Amino acid sequence: MTKFKAQNKSKIQISNTKALVRLLGIFVLSLFWILCFGICHSSFAAERFFEVKAKKFSYTPNIIKVNKGDKVNIRLISEDVHHGFFVDGYGVKTSALPGQEGALSFIADKSGRFSFRCSVTCGSLHPYMIGYFYVAPNNLWVWGVLGVLVLGLISWLVTAGKKQKDEKLKLFGIIPLEWRFPLTKFKPLRALLKSRWFPFLPIVFNLFIFTIILLAGFIGGLGAGNYNFGVMIVWILWWVLLMMFMVPVIGRFWCMMCPFPLIGDWIQRGKLINVGRQKSWGLNKRWPNKLRNLWPLVILFWVSTWFSGFFTVKPFATFILLGAIILIAIIIALFFEKRTFCLFVCPVSGFQGLYANFSLFGVRSRDPEICKKHVPKTCVVGNEKGYGCPWMELPYEMNRNTYCGLCFECIKTCPYDNMDLVLKPFGQDLFAERRRTDDVYNRRGTDEAYKALTMIGIFLSFFLAFQGPYGHLRDMVTAKTFGLHGYLGYLLESFTIDFLLIPGSLFLFAWLSKLASKSKDVKLKDVFVNFSYCLVPVGIAVWGAFSLGIIFPNGSYLLHIISDPFSWGWNLFGTASIPWTPFFTGLMPYLQVLITLGGMLFALDFGYKFSQRTYKDIGEAKRGWIPMLIYLILIHIFFIKIFVG
Amino acid sequence: MKKTVYFITFVLLAAFAGLVYYGARHWRGVPVQIEKFETPVLNVAFMDKDIDLAQGLASEVWQEIKPQEIKLMYQVTALPWPKIKGGLPFVAIKAFHNKEDIYFYLRWPDDTEDRVHETASFSDAGAIMFPLEKKAQPHTIMMGFLGRVNIWHWKANQDREYWRNESPQTKAYVDFYYPFEDQELFPVSKHVTKSPVNDLVAIRVGTITPKDNQEVAGKGIWENGVWSVVLKRPLAAIEAENGVNFAAGKKLAALAIWNGSQGDRGGRKSISDWVELDIK
User: Fold this and answer.
1) A79 to chain B: nearest residue by CA?
2) Coil, strand, or helix at residue B152?
3) What ipTM was predicted for this assembly?
4) What was the pLDDT predicted at A309?
5) Do the chains contact at B19 and A335, CB–CB below 8 Å?
6) Do A282 and B145 count as a contact with CB atoms less than 8 A apart?
7) Which of A81, A215, A218 to mutate against chain B (most B CBs within 10 Å)?
8) Of B5, B19, B142, the CB nearest to A334
9) pTM (2 d.p.)
10) Which domains does chain A have, with CATH numbers?
11) What is the rounded CA–CA span in Å between residue A467 and residue A125?
């Protein structure tokens, strides 16, 4: 037996050495390719002339390629209305009226990929009128790919050397994943969270802002979207804050202060601030068990993206969308119990719930023993201090953020102050088993897997349509090219990417992982679902990088709309006349690469941990990890390509 | 309870639907009644007549034809606009053909006869534009706006030079006019006017190009505050690609009038929308 074990061990070592040699070979080949790429793209400077035709909302040609040092001469011709031509990173611009050409000359002294974009408000999709300007050699793309390969190699080297499964999960092998720090140890914070005025006051503040947003959408809608308070606050400021800060760092911070369910809460409880009815007024129905998961939110968010070409740019469309969400929230509150709307209907709830599992904060019970003995469980049934969990969680044993809306009612109702707002390492909840004790489901599911996957698919569709150089896609999104057929084509493309290509690619590599692991016990579905969770940091990263492309070029419009929220010519704070001023557009590609690599770092760390969790022994886990490692390397090279390649 | 919930739901849905309906009607401002524009039709009938422009405009011939009044509007692209916005309200047009040539007669009011083009004073003028593309652009602004057009541009100053043989010795020419021109074998700087009408092609603003073959003849007379201009050209153009051909059937045309004393020149002019020529 001992001899057999020794033989086996030496076989594993030989196989590991071979694999190492192969991987190093691939790495050297990649470096060689990168070197060749650099040499091929180096050439002598020359003077280049381009005639660029601008038409709502694209340029022809939409891609301009030059070499570093070239003198670039642009002759801009408008084929419909007044258009501009601004080059990110270079900060040079010109504009053209119909019949009056614009001209621009500059030396292409910075290499890389830059966007050129319209600098004159020309219509609803003006902020997304973009083309690409390539200055060879594109070093950032090369360095980005190199970064991905290096991270992949490091990950493989680290994991290949492991002799046994990790006893304790540690983030990057440093911070124990179960580590928590109770922030509510600080009395002022606990007092704040126990007060009935919190989070009521932030909600009221938000209600004020959203009232202006709705009014701006309804009566101030004559301005273009980029000069409308509603469009700018919701789709530029809110979205960027949500994807870059709130969700990845604080979790469902937005849900805490979202004003949409306020009227429904009021109807159900009979009171706005103090504690009213514990049992919801209305029909108080229970949401069907089969739909008590993320599937409705996967579908609803996807459906809401069908209209992205309208409500992200047209003030009145924004009004309709937000108005419809508020209306549905009230109606759902009339028919169903508590926060059913937030849990299973709100389109933006799904990704917030899933991505909140990555965040640094959460509400958890401090001592489970106290909760065990405490009867009745006031965090569930409520008391005179607060309501039983409106999100229908069992707060005393909550270990994941997916369905916690940070309303802090459990902190208010706990007589033992046993509920805490805790600080925890990134991604802790992703490893916690799903535990919905009031529900029939008690497992990781394809709903969360598909939520993670469709979020990446929707990012791709959005990026191609709104930050890519493809005017026909923008026309398809708004049903301009090919009319209804074009629009349906866009929906088909979106469906194919979101529900077939992206999930299909993970499924393929999950199958390869199972094959490589040689495991006969584990189910393919479990491999697929488990590994899908390492796409959570990937999704957060690519959406963060995407958001930079929204805020840096378009953020300056915010200065205008705070002074003139209804497009009525006001100048409340003296900022209405500040012209469009894009900022950090030269830095943006570097930040996008860094954020993407940051997401990969987490994905690699989480991925191997999920491999250990999925497969029963270290050999299977290591073998099963290799296809997933390759998958993560490939998709990150693809993302780097999307952002800067 | 159930009835109350359903009632509230119904009221909320109806209120929101009403808001959306109202918003959809008003999101581009208060809706106005837009009159459907009907393209005026000008009959171009056959008449066995010929006009020798050297003898005059042959008013007796034109008296037989009923005029079509075409509404004009002042252009909105080039600034500044004249103080009295609106320019000319209309231009009257008549036309006929004799199977060889086609004739157009334009008549519009103008208080002053502006036949000199020099510094800060501009000539009166009139023009007809014909689209050369099968599918014309929906509006006549900006030289057909990316569709090729053939323009016949009659200018009062050119008319003076051609028919009255009066040299354009104005201040405007002083810097480049060569005083010994007549003693030279070949013209050095003098522009030789071959016709009062420029036969042009254009594809958009800034692309006006004289055709190689100037085929259009014309003459204008100002009397009692009214301009009368006749344009004449063979039915078939020599340059088939760049000249409009008048086969029997429908053809589009647009008119433009410049009032020199008002500062009209270049893009500053009164224009019409498309007029349909019905060539018999």
Assistant:
1) B146
2) strand
3) 0.79
4) 87
5) no
6) no
7) A218
8) B5
9) 0.75
10) 47-137 (2.60.40.420), 140-167+453-644 (no CATH), 181-431 (no CATH)
11) 11
